[in-house]
Amino acid sequence: MDKETTAVVKQLLKSKKKIVVVGHKNPDGDAVGSCLGMSFFLNQLGHKSIVVMPNDFPDFLKWLPGCEDIVIHEKDTDVSIGLINEADLIFTLDFNSLSRVGELQQLLEDCDAKFVMVDHHQAPDDYAVVTYSDVAMSSTSEMVYHFMDALGELDALCVEVATHLYTGIMTDTGSFRFPSTTATTHRVIAHLMEIGANNAEIHQQVYDTNSADRMKLLGVALKNLNIIPEYHTAYITLSQKELDACNFRKGDTEGFVNYALSIAGIKFAVIFIENKQESIVKMSFRSKGDFSVNDFARNHYNGGGHINAAGGRSLASLSKTVTEFISILHGYKEELANAS
Ligand code: 5GP
Ligand code: MN
Q: What is the arithmetic mean of pLDDT over 290-300?
């Protein structure tokens, strides 16, 4: 975080503030990890901070220290409305457009609080008095560490915050293997471990607590895998019926798309997940090399994200969405052939 931004943050935090830390809809490990870490840190500085999420987060994160205090807007609507309307400051973490918070959007747009954004996605919107945005960062959780460092407050790093940030960095880097993982990321991780983040236990909690239903759903997803070799593309579909048959729970499909991307020669992978309740098909896009799924998602699916990981949605049926996707793909044949 640069000196100018740091000075503005210091000024904002000079007196004790009521702060709400908000993550994006369908929060993942980085959203929950960075929000909890930031909120714990702000409380240690003497502020009154709490995390509000638009909707619930996956079970594999439900052991994180303090996660039971997260206010879920979808469940505790009145509480979250009260907190947001009374807040002096709202920190928005791991997203950069208010369209990413679902039902919370209007509330955030209408409230009087000042906004602080900490995020690593492409193309930040202009709604915050502090925009700490860095698309080269592995994760928002790593940015929370640098945020604390810039404020000269790394002494406040405790085992709980180290655990939050380790979890967020680990999940957003695919366990430290994506290109966004830098030597600095590893130095941050080393420090978090020195403070007490228990790497083996965190990996186990997140990755080795699968339900049998989730493994069955993975089987269905892999059975539904389609490969289009001439476009270096692989995609997976999951219908609502298939999800229901495996008692789908939030987070169950996390990482499934990576199996499609792991196939030799595949540069572009997609998973289409039908959501009857919201009348949408949720799409996750992943790529290898310089094929930008952020651009692809922005241009065609009202979405966005990073160069190699992005999301979007379609309002058409599952089968129509796939047909449309394939016709869109024709226009990318050359780009995909040349991507490296
Ligand atoms: P996922 O496919 O795991 O849901 O998301 C991949 C990345 O893209 C994440 O960093 C996520 O925050 C971002 N992302 C997912 N869906 C959307 C979307 O609809 N809009 C934007 N702007 N980003 C998204
Ligand atoms: Mn992230």
A: 98
- Per CATH, 3-207 and 212-338 having the same topology is answered no
Report the topology of domain 3-207.
inorganic pyrophosphatase (n-terminal core) (3.90.1640)
122-143 mean pLDDT: 98
Please calculate the CA angle 258-51-149 and round it to the nearest 5 degrees.
Answer: 80
Span between the terminal Cα atoms of the chain, in Å: 31
The share of the chain scoring above pLDDT 70, in percent, equals: 100
CATH number of the domain located at residue range(s) 212-338 in this protein: 3.10.310.30
Q: Report pLDDT digits (tens) over 86-115.
A: 999 999 999 999 999 999 999 999 999 999
Torsions phi, psi of 197, nearest 5? -60, 125
Write down the pTM of the prediction.
0.96
Q: How far is CA 237 from the centre of its chain?
A: 21
Residue 289, exposed/middle/buried by CB under 10 A (0-12, 13-18, 19+)?
middle
Ligand 2 centroid distance, CA of 172 (Å): 6
Rounded average pLDDT over 278-282 = 98
Q: Is 221 helix (H, G, I), strand (E, B) or coil?
A: helix
Compute the half-sphere exposure of residue 43: CA atoms within 13 Å on the CB side of its CA: 15
**Closest ligand to 102 CA?**
1
Structural domain spans, the chain: 3-207, 212-338
DSSP single-letter state for residue 315: S
**Ligand 2 centre and the CA of 30: distance in Å?**
5
Per-residue pLDDT, averaged over 216-241, amounts to 98
Atom 13 of ligand 1: nearest residue by CA position: 305
Give residue 177's pLDDT.
95
Whose CA is closest to 311, among 22, 23, 28? Answer: 28
In which residue are the tokens 């997140």 written? 206
Residues 6 or more apart whose CB falls under 8 angstroms from that of 333 comprise 230, 231
Nearest ligand for residue 27 CA: 1
